[in-house]
Design goal:
The chain is mainly α. About 55% of the residues lie in helices and about 5% in strands.
């Protein structure tokens, strides 16, 4: 399938109807878009929506968040997972205040200089908040391109430069249409061209999809590493420690934290990781969230 045809078809499909999500509402602020992109990293949409609403009610601007200590961001993050995102988001808010007068920048390079902002997030904010014509590529977009253009059932490991170039080739020249194509490719991968059991009969690309035309062959290429199970992992131990610290207004002794997990060596490793990542601070054998 020709990439530019893909972009035009997906833009039309998305414009005709899509899921109603807060960050797609007219006038949704750039700060809200940035927060939503941080939250959506490895967290389902259904869990993000109420958390985003609470966050923006409490901190409607970067300045509002930057005025409070990082510990409050970690408490408000609660159980969204991957709490380093909360710390990075607080750092990004502080940088926006210090470098950009409290206004989320529209320039991709400026966005990339913010803590916690990578190639995907920078382009998503620029494209969706400001209408900048730049390719936005996540796992869902990569899957749509792999199937429709390249004829592969799966994406394989990420290739940032190649993935961005592939989506760039699919973008319509008009920035407004490009924004629709970016959002549409993401939506298509999320609700139709899914990793398992894709709904090809409902796909606007079905009649020109290279993968379908080839008979939907099974994937035999390299695969991205699978994430380890949460249960019993260091991530679970880290989560238990952070939950205990979020619930406490005073520093917690090491002995009390160690009682949360039976494997002493694993607890020590998880706590050392939290200290290294700046999610926990120690003073006199007691531990707390960073201020």
């Amino acid at each position: 399938m020709d990439p530019r045809e893909l972009g035009d078809r997906v833009a039309d499909w998305f414009a005709a109807g899509h899921r109603a999500l807060p960050w797609r509402e007219p006038g949704f602020p750039a700060w809200g878009t940035l927060v939503s992109e941080f939250m959506l990293q490895q967290t389902p949409v259904a869990r993000v929506i109420p958390a985003l609403e609470r966050w923006l009610t409490r901190w409607p601007s970067p300045a509002a968040l930057a005025a409070e200590p990082p510990s409050e961001a970690l408490r408000a993050w609660d159980r969204l997972g991957y709490p380093r995102r909360a710390l990075a988001l607080h750092g990004a808010a502080t940088a926006i205040v210090e470098r950009h007068g409290g206004v989320v920048p529209a320039d991709v390079d400026a966005l990339l200089e913010l803590p916690g902002v990578g190639p995907y997030t920078a382009r998503a904010v620029a494209a969706f908040a400001y209408g900048v014509r730049v390719p936005v590529v996540d796992t869902n977009v990569r899957r749509v391109l792999a199937r429709a253009v390249e004829g592969r059932a799966e994406t394989g490991p990420p290739r940032t430069a190649a993935d961005l170039a592939a989506m760039e080739a699919a973008l319509p020249a008009d920035p407004a249409r490009a924004r629709l194509a970016n959002a549409g490719a993401m939506e298509l991968g999320q609700v139709v061209c899914t990793a398992r059991n894709p709904r090809c009969a409902a796909c606007p690309l079905a009649d020109a999809c290279a993968w379908l035309a080839a008979g939907s062959p099974a994937y035999d290429g390299p695969r991205a590493p699978r994430q380890k199970r949460y249960e019993g992992s260091d991530r679970q131990v880290r989560g238990l420690v952070l939950r205990e610290l979020r619930a406490s207004d005073t520093p917690v002794p090491r002995k009390a934290l160690a009682a949360l997990w039976v494997d002493t060596a694993q607890f020590d490793r998880a706590l050392a990781g939290l200290l290294h990542d700046g999610l926990v601070v120690e003073s006199g054998g007691e531990f707390a969230l960073p201020d």
